[in-house]
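User: Before I run my own analysis I want an independent prediction to cross-check against. Here's the chain; please return only the structure tokens and, at the end, one sentence I can use as a sanity check.
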Amino acid sequence: MKPDIRRKWLRRSLFALAGGIVFLGAIIAFLPTILSGSFGRNMAVGFVSPLVRGQVSLASLSLSWSGPQVIQGFSINGADGASITVDVTANNGLIALARQSEPPHIVLSGIVATAYRPDGSLSLTELFVSPTPAVSQPAKATPSQSQAPSVSLAETLRGTILEITSLQLIAAGSQSDPKIEINGLKGKFSVEDAGVRASFSALTKVGEKTGSLSLNGMVDGLFAKDGSVNMDAASIDVDLQASALAIPSAGVPLEIESLSIKITSAKFADAVRVSGNTTIQLPTGETANSTISLDATNPMDAAKRSLAGSISLVNLPTSALAPYLPDPLNAARDLGSSLNAKITLEGRTGSAEISSQKFSITAAGGLAE
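Assistant: Structure tokens:
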């Protein structure tokens, strides 16, 4: 090949190579923009659709190498009133997420709806397809293969933030059952250097009754210096307050007029205290009160653990038991108008008492070794 022809061929090859590099760079640079269009939305819908029993749709998708990732109007609509519609924002660039160079910060809002049936089941649980367990082949031993260094749970999650700006949960029953709503749920869950912290609040509604819900808690000292989870050394402070709340159950939903629970521990391996009280609204319109006050010592040591305190149920109307009694028994006549029950624990022994205007039963026992 003559020198001038060789130079022309080399020059054309270099131009072609440079053009290919520029074209490839442009594709990579604009890949998030390409995936943000209908092509990317269809891919996302096609990926999720086989995993659910319902119609999947996605209103908009915005991806960026350096900016936030935004998903708007992602919805799954199933049968019997089950649906999920959410907006999700990840305040991290794709590069940072891929390299795990900064902790993820996820912001979530939306509406979740379900129907609850007379047996207490929720239609929402049927929205997702149960995964088929894969048959795995035993891996062959390869002594010469080097293992990648393990990353601790703390190192993986440290700094992660899940923030809810506005979430609505709706559970609708039959015409005679009240609609259960949790409205405007907002708050934040974060993984910190030594533990986790959560703070959430919302408005609640059961039928025409309105109330509120709040959860504030922290678990400190959960992660050891090497990043491993060390529950024994953790300190706990959790406070849950609620009113006008209901839990779907067989027959009728369990309506909670008020709820207060507090869990504290300076060091979980040594002692944990649980205290609280609940007022339950019965279908008859009557109420029953329950209180709990328990101190657990050495809860992680089966040989040394012990419990002290009491659990009591006061003024439970026997009319609430009437549907479950056999025909010969009459609740008011044979049991009295109300029941009181109390369990008292002292170390590794305890006693129980159930009483009414008609009878009294006591029993005693102990914790097995």
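Sanity check: The longest strand covers residues 254-267.
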